[in-house]
Specification:
- By secondary structure, the chain is an all-beta fold.
- It is elongated.
- About 10% of the residues are buried.
């Protein structure tokens, strides 16, 4: 049986003002005891937010390593 993989978000919450469009960065740390290969992060934007890119590639993350996902987000006014 393989080791378990778990992630923790280590970045501060992002801010986006109404009517604004911007790129938010989310840092993920592999807190599991095994490497994560070809790790990906997804975002599910719900009203009043929208996103054209909902998938970010984090790559291979060893235990304790962090990866950064970037998402372009828009907030309706």
């Amino acid at each position: 049986v393989g080791a378990k993989i778990s992630f923790t978000i280590t970045s501060k919450p992002a801010t986006l003002n109404p009517g604004q469009k911007g790129v938010i960065e989310v840092q993920y740390r592999n807190d599991g005891s095994a490497p994560a290969y070809s790790a990906e992060a997804r975002i599910s934007a719900v009203d009043p937010f929208t996103s054209n890119d909902d998938l970010a590639y984090l790559g291979d993350l060893k235990s304790g390593e962090t990866g950064t996902a970037k998402f372009e987000i828009s907030a309706s006014s």
